[in-house]
Predict the structure.
Amino acid sequence: MALLSFNNVFKVYREGDHPVYAVRGVNFTISSGEFVAVMGASGSGKSTILNILGLLDRPTTGTYKLEDIDVSSLDDDEMSEIRCRRIGIVFQSFNLFAQFSVVENVCTPMRYAHVPPAIMRARAEELLGKLGMSHRLSHRPTQLSGGERQRVAIARALSNDPPLILADEPTGNLDEKTGEEVIRILTTLVEGGRTVVMVTHNPAYEEIVDRVIRLHDGEIVEDRPGGRGGRRA
Amino acid sequence: MAEEVGVLNFLRMLQMTLMNLSCHAFRSLLAALGVVLGVGAVVAMMAISEGGRRESIARIRAMGIDNIVIRSVKPTQEGQSETSSSQGNVNIYGIKAKDTIHMLTTFENIGKIVPVRDMQQRLFANGRRTGIRMMATVPEFLSITFSQQADSRGRWLTDLDEVRCNPICVLGVDAARTIFGIRDPLGQTISVGGGSFKVVGLLRNQRGAKLAGQYDLNNLVYIPFATGNAVFGDLLPVEGSMRERVGVDYDFLYIKVDDVNYLPDTVKRLRNYLDTTRDTRDFEVQVPYELLLQEEATQRVFSIVMGSIAAISLLVGGIGIMNIMLANIFERTREIGTRRALGARKRDILFQFLLESTILTALGGGVGLTLGILIARLVEHFAHMNTAITMPSVVVSLAVSIFTGVIFGTYPAWKAANLDPIEALRHE
Ligand SMILES: Nc1ncnc2c1ncn2[C@@H]1O[C@H](COP(=O)(O)OP(=O)(O)O)[C@@H](O)[C@H]1O
Ligand SMILES: [Mg+2]
């Protein structure tokens, strides 16, 4: 079942007089439950694609359909609503709110979804528990290690139970071991039925994803099954 | 249920906002300083002016709003009524008995006249001369000045005192305290200018209430009018002068009119009568009603001035808030981008920062209010001025603070809400 699709998507930036083609004519369809790695050199358009997928940006031309909705038809509030409930975003540099506790951080998306406070807190604690962060509930992000911070960020991305998780180099700021832990967590999410699209530079991760999409200069140069592919029908 | 969630969410948001602000507690404090000082100054000045207003209104009330007060005034040097005699200079001036008779007989609107005579005495207490003066007057004085008896065991001057020229007196409460301290004044005797007067009662009026706007009612000694004449005579020695003496029948007259509607007319006729029947200007007509109108006009001017000061200080405070909010938002650009990525709508961001600026100014207003009340208290304590914090001044100052936060917080909040999420995320 197709969760989302890109149809001839272009993204053009204006740099002074001449246009910069960040994404040029990209087509793909991602199914529910797929674990996709987006790879490619720096500047190849990975983040641009992820931003479009995350409804933070719109294609210049072409269509992006998410759950059968043409995103170009949505206004800002509707896009926010989808970001809030249908998409979870994980950043390379965690982007936790330093002034709030771990639990508060995880609660933020639920706040925007108007979840009743009591349920909100229970759910945040449950998620953090699953990610092995029960002992850090009222800590501040600055008191945590990088791996712990990313786990909090993942819990935050999951708080409204979105079907699609986007992660732009989620292991970029972590050492190898903690990076692997984060990838393991993402794998369990996929096993739980979620779709994960992750930007990564690490070739080792090609072996544990369902699919690898490689970009070069804004174009797809490779779209093949990853090492985990065999396990899926 | 939905409402409950809304309220709870709002409370949580309030808490988060406070957490955000406390991150930069010192900076927030500085930012709100303009509002704090503005509100503080306005509240204090309003308290002082309100205190002053109440005092002057009490003073005017004590003269009686349906009264006319006439005061005898010593004419300027060229006064022709000065006669030399073997005993020295004698100044005879002011309202005479014949004037009051004329008034009572020809002015149908004049119902009652209460005379007061200044006995030209300054009382001594503990061997020292005080500011306490002695006045002779009639029983109706109590009601016409809205005074009260301060001690239920005592009494006020009576008609019988008049008839018998009883050597008794009633003390104003402040006078009593100065003369007798904590001792019970009732039944004591005071000696003044060769006469002895038994204290039979105490009089109290509102603080600031004055006899014809001149002498504090609480700081006088009252004796029966007839007693005054009997003990001290027609001519009284002038303080600080061996040769001079004065002959004034009535130093003050309280004239009560029957119908307040005709008060302005009566005043006009009265002024006309007094102007035409004497050679020198030895009187002054005070109309509490007119004073009240004047007071209100003064108050209006004061309010406009206060309002302008308040507006300017809040403008300054508001600009401070706007400044700090812009800095805040610049610093937290990445946070804003993250929040947008997590699903915050523009209006969520707008509301967040608007709430922040509003709470900042509301807290500033609260601190300013406290400061203002404190200043007013200090002024009351050290400068011995009456002050009054009124409910409207409290409500208005807080409302205006909140309003300032909303007005000056709108632009920064709008800017924050309209940041491009991707640019914001890339910030730093
Ligand atoms: N806002 C922008 N304005 C101009 N050029 C941009 C902008 N964002 C991205 N680009 C350009 O688009 C290209 C792709 O960028 P990006 O998607 O961030 O690459 P990647 O994430 O693969 O490193 C780059 O050449 C980058 O310089
Ligand atoms: Mg990138």
The first helix of chain B runs from residue 2 to 23.
